[in-house]
Amino acid sequence: MKQDRPGASSGILLGATTLPSVMLSRLIQLSRVLLTDPNGRDDYAYLEMQYWAVSVSCLSVLAFLVWHMWQSPSTEISKASKYGLLLIILYPLAYLFYFLLKGDGGLLVMSNLVYLLCHGAAAVILIKHILEKFPSCSSFGEAILVSSGLVLYCGDMLAQILSKMEFSVSAEAFIHIAGSRSEIGAVIQGVLLALFLLPLLYKSSLQVLTYCRKSEKRSSQTVGECIQKRIDCVVFYVSLLVALSLLVPSWTRLVQGFEVHPFVWVFNYIFTDSRERLALCAYWIFVIYVSIRRFYSISKQSKTERILLRKYYHLVAVLIFSPAVIFQPDFLDLAFGAAFAVFLILEMIRVWEIYPLGHIVHQFMNAFTDHRDSETLIVSHFSLLLGCALPKWMSSGFNDRPLTPFAGILSLGIGDTMASMIGYKYGVLRWSKTGKKTIEGTAAGITSVLAACSILLSLLASSGYILSQHWLSLLVAVTLSGLLEAYTAQLDNAFIPLMFYSLLCL
Fold first, then answer.
1. In Å, how far from its chain's centre is CA 439?
2. Using a CB cutoff of 8 Å and minimum separation of 24, what contacts does 37-46 make?
3. Which of these, 471, 310, 498, 320, lies nearest to 407 by C-alpha position?
4. For site-directed labelling of 433, which of 42, 79, 212, 355 has its Cα 20 to 30 A away?
């Protein structure tokens, strides 16, 4: 497990409270629509269930970590254990008190309890797997965020499957289901489900192939290394093709009733109203090509620190995503999903050294790694993409705060970038003796985000958007997220956008 810098207990608590805070803020935001539109009660009830699911997941993981860390004599660990035990005692009491007061009926309460307990057990199993298989890839706080987020996402898939199955009793008697689902969301979930199952399909296929080869030719010579790589390559790409061509349409047909293959639907979607979307695609390709070619050359030839080089990619993210959020928000949701799927496939190819791209991808990605990455996994590009994508995805549907879709772009692309650059070049006063972050950098980050917000609000107001964001609440949100970026030792690409989004929802 990657070692936390000073403040390990605060990092663990930050990881355990980030997703519940986001869900709670989203609940507060959705509660405002219920005053005028009672049709949103199904979405609110389902989001409420997701809040409790992620809370139970984080609580279960926190309990596991507390038990795991009692063996350590470290003072920081002892403090973390005390805070964790306090949460473990208080949270279940609040949870039981909530359900006793709610009183929706015995069957619903019991089914919800079982559903939530499954989330907690799955989160503990997942974080245990992360600690064993990837011990140097993340801190405890980051591992909590990843495990609880994955379990929540997979739990949402499970809830959709249960809602489509025919029981003798209505599915709503077991769990609340969201009232509306978008086609783009269904396609993204189908692709990610196929890619999550791809390692299982690939490894199983290799084991079956190895067993058949051994049983057929036990006395023959071993297969050459080059031939074995080619066999693995064929098995991987066949497994990928099977996953995308069979699992994805099966999912979309089940949850959304697609009559055509989802990739055909995506093709039709892109070329409907094609002028603006194709122009946006051409713009993205141009910016990505120029930036990657330029920055890769700089990383090989200059002495520029990699942390600053990576911040240039944050600025590129602003150039890429900002126009799409304003003019094509739905298309951007689809593009985020496609980019994340491509990242997953390339990372699998790199880690498993799939011929012939494995070595090329590994060599290219090493040019942009730093201390946050490990030899096993390179996660920085994932965190940057998800940091920009998650606030946009969560803002779909009702959204009375115009800046929430920009939370990731503002906090990472502008605030974090300016804080790093100004702090590196002009920073003198440091927040702590051991840390590198400076007061000047934090001030620059907060100021730059406020300036960008004023420009965005003016653009949105000129386009006819009815603004409901108060400047005082915006100032508080920007300041608190900036101070959190300066204080936390966790991966800020993952935590800061979520916390900033949570504050903007209020």
1. 29
2. 39/179, 40/179, 40/398, 42/176, 42/177, 42/178, 42/179, 43/178, 43/179, 43/180, 43/397, 43/398, 45/176, 46/159, 46/176, 46/177, 46/178, 46/179
3. 498
4. 79
Q: What's 323-336 look like in SS3?
A: HHHHHCHHHHHHHH
Give residue 315's identity as a one-letter amino acid code. Answer: L
Half-sphere exposure of 271 (CA within 13 A, CB side): 5
Q: Evaluate whether 407 touches 440 at the Cβ level (below 8 Å).
A: no
Nearest residue to 498 via CA among 343, 341, 393: 393
Q: Which of 16, 24, 14 is nearest to 47 (CA)?
A: 24
Contact criterion met (CB below 8 Å) for 134 and 376: yes
Q: Using alpha carbons, list the distances in angstroms from residue 28 to 44, 47, 450, 466, 495.
A: 10, 11, 24, 19, 20
Q: How far apart are CA 226 and CA 206, in angstroms?
A: 16
214 φ/ψ angles, rounded to the nearest 5 degrees: -70, -40
**pLDDT tens, 423-452?**
888 878 888 777 778 888 899 999 999 999
pTM: 0.87
Q: What is the CA radius of gyration of the chain?
A: 24
For the stretch 469-486, pLDDT in tens is 678 888 999 999 988 888
pLDDT of 220: 46
Element holding 458 (H helix, E strand): helix 439-462
Task: Tell me the residue type at 352.
Answer: W
